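Hey, can you fold this one?
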Amino acid sequence: QIQLVESGGGLVQAGASLRLSCAVSGRTFSSTTMGWFRQAPGKERDLVAAITWNSRNTYYADSVKGRFTISRDNAKNTVYLQMNSLKPEDTAVYYCAAYDISGVEDILILRIHTDRSKYAYWGQGTQVTVSS
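Sure. Predicted structure:
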């Protein structure tokens, strides 16, 4: 049974930084593409950032490019989301998610799916609140 456990959320002022962590167990971590989603009240759950199994390809939503950085440590089975220059509009519940890689497109071409239906595994979420 795979488990994803997020940590690092909290309440900060605009302009501050936070680092979210997601520890993964029960799965071969290096065989997954990892993503961070967020969901604000009354809104859809959207992909914020994602990273391939070997860290050689990443995806960022336009709203966070240049401010957020996703990384992973396969030795520690952990994925991180460094969030800098936080804005009130970044306030949301942040979810860690994953899907198993398969085939040439995932393994060699390093495709990243942005559709949340592709992500089979989810954490419980961590709240990030940015005050103005």
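The mean pLDDT is 95. Let me know if you want another pass with a different chain boundary.
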